[in-house]
Design the sequence.
């Protein structure tokens, strides 16, 4: 098998979602959506700051890609502090 045309890429994937999202939505849908949108904006900025890229953000999930595992871990550490 010839490997001349194969391009390899090492990527770290981060997937994060909101703990208790269904409960939060049932208690205060409008407030939960407002808070979720604010946090998604903050997370997107933090991901980009650490050389990542948000691939998708459906519902309460954020899916991001990093070219470096170190950068992905730095973002996770920041998420846990907040």
Sequence:
């Amino acid at each position: 098998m010839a490997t001349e045309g194969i391009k390899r890429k090492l990527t770290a994937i981060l997937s994060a979602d909101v703990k208790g999202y269904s409960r939060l939505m049932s208690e205060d849908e409008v407030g939960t959506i407002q808070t979720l949108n604010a946090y998604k904006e903050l997370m997107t900025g933090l991901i980009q700051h650490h050389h990542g890229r948000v691939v998708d953000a459906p519902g309460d999930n954020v899916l991001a890609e990093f070219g470096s595992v170190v950068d992905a871990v730095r973002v996770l550490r920041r998420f846990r502090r907040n």
Observations:
- The beta strands are 12-17, 52-56, 61-66.
- Helices lie at 21-27, 29-49, 69-81.
- The first strand starts at residue 12 and ends at 17.
- The two ends are 49 Å apart (CA to CA).
